[in-house]
Amino acid sequence: MSVGRVSPPYMWIFSARTDYLRLTISTLHFTISYAIGAAASTRVSNELGAGNPEAVRVAIYASMFLAITEESIMTQN
């Protein structure tokens, strides 16, 4: 007979739900960041190919604004 406290058998359900929620939020965070980077890369490449340096500058500023905004929203406690 073991001595000590044994947790109820249903406690693993709460732990699994919490882990799943953390994994989902983490995946969402990286997916949004990846999408912003891919879209910015495509837009900058297209504008460079078209010879529009001002549009490249706007694209870079817009992508940086989106990345900083997403980061500040996702890191709030």
Automatic annotation (TrEMBL):
Pfam families on file: MatE
Native organism: Lupinus luteus (European yellow lupine)
Protein name per its UniProtKB record: Uncharacterized protein
InterPro entries linked to this entry: MATE_fam
Family of this protein: Belongs to the multi antimicrobial extrusion (MATE) (TC 2.A.66.1) family.
Cellular component GO terms held in the UniProt record: membrane
UniProt GO molecular function: antiporter activity; xenobiotic transmembrane transporter activity
